[in-house]
Amino acid sequence: MHVFLWIIGLALFGYVLVKFIKHRPLSPFMPYKYNFGKRRITFQKVLDLLDKTQAKVIVETGTSRSGLQGAKGDGAATIVFGKWAKENDAFMHSVDISEDSVKGSQTEVDTQNLGNHVRVYLSDSLIFLKEFDQQVDFLYLDSYDYSKDLEVQVKSQEHHLKEFKAIEDRLHENTIVLIDDCRLPNGGKGKTTIEYMLKNDWKIALDAYQVLLVRKDFGF
């Protein structure tokens, strides 16, 4: 009986230990309970760079439809960087073509009291980016859902490159660019965009599930 209880206790300990190891929070910036998984390393690096560059204008394509509840699944970037914007007198612009996604994101923005520093737009991202008239300090590309379908993969990659080119002339020497979902089949969302950027005076600062890029002469 004692041996059985010992085995059960050991199994429970192992389960808790694995859960602890796999839990990747952004604490103390975000509450410990939220697990940012494979995006934690790049999100933390971006937060550090935002502090150093004193960023003021953040642009995101593909809004966080599930708010913080989607931290592990989609990263909850709208809320993470929206909170940073609130704490640093900056402003975040998040755009999505899906009405449901915009509604979900706006609900969480309101819940987190970020409305004075985050605006969620219902629009085609290409139109929005072409018309955006401010210099961008941080650009986060995460639109056009990827899939196992090769045709969808190619279209997603092409769309991201079009997004980058649409806003390229409003990116400056210390702009930070983060592209989501890069470690997926066929190079992920960022494949063609990264190839283009590397040929045009950009370099990879961090290569993980997400890819973080800065100018070759980035000053921080």
Short description:
With 220 residues, the chain is α/β, with parallel strands linked by helices. The protein has eight helices and seven strands, in the order ααβααβαβαβαβαββ.
Which CATH class applies here? Alpha Beta
* Fraction of helical residues: 40-55%
| CATH architectural designation | 3-Layer(aba) Sandwich
Distance between the termini: 61 Å
The total of helices stands at 8
**Number of domains in the coordinates?**
1
H/E element string?
Answer: HHEHHEHEHEHEHEE
Average pLDDT works out at 90
The name of the CATH topology is: Rossmann fold
The chain-level structural class is alpha/beta
Number of strands: 7
How is this structure best described in words?
The protein has eight helices and seven strands; from the N terminus they run H-H-E-H-H-E-H-E-H-E-H-E-H-E-E. Strand 4, helix 7 and strand 5 form a beta-alpha-beta unit. 44% of the residues lie in helices and 19% in strands. It starts with a helix and ends in a 5-residue tail after the last strand. It has helices at 2-22, 40-53, 71-74, 77-87, 99-111, 125-131, 150-167, 191-198, and strands spanning 57-61, 91-96, 118-122, 136-141, 171-179, 202-207, 211-215. It has 220 residues and is α/β, with parallel strands linked by helices. Helix 6 runs parallel beside helix 7 and helix 7 packs across helix 8 (191-198). It has one domain: Vaccinia Virus protein VP39 (Rossmann fold, 3-Layer(aba) Sandwich), CATH 3.40.50. The chain has a seven-stranded mixed beta sheet, sandwiched between helices. The longest helix has 21 residues, at 2-22.
